[in-house]
Fold this sequence. Notes:
Layout (H helix, E strand, L loop, with lengths): L1 H20 L15 H4 L4 H28 L2 H23 L7
Helix pairs in contact: 1-3, 3-4
Amino acid sequence: MGVLVYLIIMLPFLIFAIVLSQGKGAFLLEGFHTMAQEDKEQYDEKALARFMEKMMYGYCFCVLLWILNEFFHTQWLYHVGLVLFVALTIFLLIYANTGNRFKK
Length: 104
């Protein structure tokens, strides 16, 4: 039962990562699609999409560790996945919001 739940959690991350890897889907990023057109033109949409694609694949890997935990009944895989999930989230927030990395 737990594996099914984790697969349901993983599926949106995977679909979003695939859409972003094709260079599309930046309009789905919260905050980006609500900007005025002149503000959007200041940002490198493809770089932002590539960064978020990597983050989504990272989240998929974390959920995959949780799935493996269910199969092998080892708690350490769950904890590693959880620590990676939190670390990725902190990294995403800091990296994306500092340094104007995605401005043209």
